[in-house]
Amino acid sequence: MKMAICAGFLVLLLISPAVFAKDITVGGNNGWTESFDYSSWTSSQTFNVGDNLVFNYGPTHSVYEVSRADYDNCNTGNPRSTHSPSPTTIPLSAAGSRYFICPTSNHCSQGMKLAVNVVAAGTPAPGGSPPSGSRPTPSSPNTPPAPPGTSAPPPPSGGAASIFGGMSNLIVGSLAALFVLMG
Q1: In angstroms, what CA-CA distances link 165 with 46, 93, 177?
Q2: Which residues constitute the domain of residue 94?
Q3: In a domain, 165, yes or no
Q4: Residue 61 located in a structural domain
Q5: Range list of H helices, the chain
Q6: Could you report the per-residue pLDDT of 45-86, keeping only the tens digit for each?
Q7: Can you give the CATH number for the domain in which 125 is found?
Q8: How many domains does the chain have?
Q9: How far is 134 from 132, CA to CA, in rounded Å?
Q10: Where is the region Disordered (predicted)?
Q11: pLDDT (tens digit per residue) in 106-134
């Protein structure tokens, strides 16, 4: 009996990061559309490893994931990935910056672009988007380095330690209860 209780606590400890993952609908009720301020929207969001971005959009739109440079210039010629039709769900599987645009002519320049900063689960974030004027950490080796004379922020912390760091009270409490039960 004690062994079954101990096994149950162990399973809870291992799956608890997944419990906190959530689906985040891009743009909230507005969805993925032109003339919406995604920068303001992301500033009130936190994007964690394990969450999913859900893009809801009409038939004249789609979603391209692009590099920071292509995001800045609304360049659709070299997407990292393309997605359609709606809805599109994109898993946020690693910490770092991610960039999305609509490839339909002039939509990106009309504001249909999204930059998110994904943090390790349990890591507090000041906002969901990279601060303006800063250069986020590249999310792939194909992203060009920062120009000379500029500095990039340190890479986000990652790994199991940072994922479980925000849940230390839960883990310590669960382990204490386990030792009491084993008695």
Answers
A1: 17, 17, 19
A2: 21-159
A3: no
A4: yes
A5: 2-19, 38-43, 68-73, 159-165, 168-182
A6: 999 999 999 999 999 999 999 999 999 999 999 999 999 999
A7: 2.60.40.420
A8: 1
A9: 5
A10: 125-160
A11: 999 999 999 999 999 765 544 444 433 33
When pLDDT is cut at 50, 70 and 90, the band that residue 21 belongs to is confident
Strand, coil or helix: 98: strand
- Please indicate, yes or no, if residue 6 is contained in any of the structural domains: no
Task: Report pTM.
Answer: 0.60
Q: Is residue 97 within 8 Å of residue 139, measured between CB atoms?
A: yes
Helix (H) or strand (E) holding 113: strand 113-119
Residue-level length of the chain: 183
Question: How many Å separate Cα 107 from the centre of its chain?
Answer: 23
The answer to whether position 167 is within a domain reads no
